[in-house]
Design a protein that fits this description.
The protein is α+β, with helices and mostly antiparallel strands and 348 residues long. It has 17 helices and 10 strands. A hairpin with a 7-residue loop joins strand 5 and strand 6. The protein is globular and about 70 Å long. 39% of the residues are buried.
């Protein structure tokens, strides 16, 4: 008997978990497999709401088996699927994505290469790490695993859970560098009467600082739609969120600067608590002899780079693909992401 969910929205994880247990697992039988809800979709990151159900949404399970079993098992499962489960169709789509079946049977390695551009069960190079978008890494390491019969998915997720230590420090350094490139501009724009420009730069700084906080807490920052939601889930983020909101709502550059400075000092203290470098002074300071206050973000970038080996320290400060490219057409395509990363960092 298929689950008869109560009226109202059912989160995708819950729906897919029941779909696997009641429909998919019986169709698979004794075939060794891993099964999970991973990959694209707001339900994987647990950000889905009733609004999500209007397109590309429904009960969904990825089943990973040995490559020789993919075709046969895929045909068996597809033939046995009901048309609907829990009130939702088991094949769904949109003009952009015409058909997404509720069950995809695949080999893990080919699936991962298509999503990430590399095999997470093999050696993961520095270029792989820097060329994989944060959204794609989050999609593979989030979601929910329903069954582990092969163990490959668990090993892959474990290997991708977070950056190796030195790569993490390099990425953090490059994120601090992005803050350094902007931190004096809200005041400089405001000084010449460009309030709109000051507001725009402040918004960019808030975005970079939110991403920095997520990286400091070992969380892959999701793409723009879910960045604020992911930041809000960080423990202890409420006060920082209030500072960011106040900076964005301020009516003049001096007020924006005041709220940003409070945030800078709070984030600088978080950096020191990570103990990745020697402690750094957390007070804001003048930007050279100009009347703008900054944290001096380059101090943190250089301190972090001083803790990594020469192969990373000698790279351009551009960082990972999310830090030097904001094109969805690139970040959403593993081949393009890796190609661009190799072009920017030819020595890795």
């Amino acid at each position: 008997m298929m689950s008869d969910f109560a009226p109202g929205f059912v989160p995708g994880r819950e729906l897919s978990r029941a779909f696997y247990a009641e429909v998919v697992q019986p169709l698979i039988g004794e075939v060794p497999h891993d099964a999970a809800l991973v990959g694209p979709g707001s339900e994987v990151l647990a950000f889905d709401t009733e609004r999500s159900t209007d397109h590309d949404w429904g009960p969904r399970v990825l089943v990973f088996v040995e490559p020789s079993r993919v075709a046969g098992l895929s045909a068996r499962v597809e033939a046995g699927l009901p048309e609907r489960f829990g009130g939702y169709p088991t094949a769904f789509g949109s003009d952009r994505n015409p058909v997404r079946h509720g069950v995809v049977v695949a080999g893990l390695r080919p699936w991962a290469r298509a999503r990430l551009g590399f095999d997470p069960l093999g050696e993961i190079t520095t270029a792989d790490w820097l060329g994989a978008s944060w959204q794609r890494l989050a999609e593979v390491t989030s979601g929910e695993v329903f069954h582990e019969g092969l163990g490959e998915l668990g090993r892959a997720r474990s290997s991708l859970r977070w950056y190796p230590g030195e790569v993490w420090r390099y990425v953090l350094a490059c994120q601090w560098r992005r803050v350094a490139q902007l931190e004096s501009f809200p005041g400089r724009c405001g000084e010449v009467g460009d309030e709109l420009g000051s507001m725009v730069v402040t918004a960019r700084l808030v975005e970079e600082l939110m991403r920095l906080c997520l990286l400091m807490r070992r969380r892959y920052p999701p793409y723009a739609k879910w960045l604020g939601s992911a930041f809000a889930r960080l423990s202890g983020s409420a006060e920082l969120g209030e500072m960011f909101s106040a900076a964005l709502a301020a009516r003049g550059w001096r007020d924006r600067e005041e709220h940003l400075c409070r945030a800078y000092e709070r984030i600088a203290a978080l950096h020191n608590r990570l103990a990745l470098t020697e402690p750094l002074e957390t007070s804001v300071r003048p930007f050279f002899d100009r009347p703008f206050r900054v944290i001096g973000a380059d101090r943190f970038a250089e301190a972090l780079l001083g803790t990594v080996g020469p192969s990373l320290r000698e790279l351009t400060r551009a960082g990972s693909v999310d830090q030097f490219c904001d094109s969805t057409d690139v970040l959403g395509d593993a081949t393009r992401s890796l190609t661009l990363t190799h072009a920017l960092h030819p020595t890795i």
